[in-house]
Amino acid sequence: MNSLLTINCILLLFLSSGCDLQEAPPAVVQPEPNGYMKAVINGESWSGDFPRTGFTFIEQDTLIQVFASQFDSVRYPYNDTIVFSYFYQAGAHSFSVLRKPDKHEQRTGGFYVENDGDAIIAWYYPIEDSVNTFTVEIKKDEENRVYAEGTFSMKVVIDPVYDNKEPNNTFRQQPDTVLITNGEYRIPLNDISNPRNK
Asked: Which of 1, 72, 109, 134 is the most buried (most CB within 10 A)?
């Protein structure tokens, strides 16, 4: 499935509030309208710009992708991308991150990519590891907006094709093995109870 994206850089605004001596009730936290996707990559915080979901309808099944890219303001247009693909199943909440062909010959699971703009620098695939996890919940907020949310972690290694092609690629920022942990996402989603009618 082709997933060509045009992603603009955004400026994150951090607001802080003061406090007084009296204990105040906790503030109501409103969901971020554009969602979020964040993780720790080899010990460094990572936050995706404009996280998205994508759909591919194959026969009676719905393949869903959850993905985001973080752009480097110093090395722009360098960016790195985290992607997870899975077939929607009502009531299912946990999926494998390992890349395995399914009945439609699509590869579900996760992967990690370093890019120079939209050109791939290095492609990483997950390997067996105890940290591997990908969960998903489909929820609605008070305004009836539908979100996909969950957690993820995975250990990935560089694809030998890219390693052999560009062994001294100076654009690469990551080592041959990348550990992605503490992943969280919450991304707006169309109501997939009957996605073909949306």
From this structure: 134
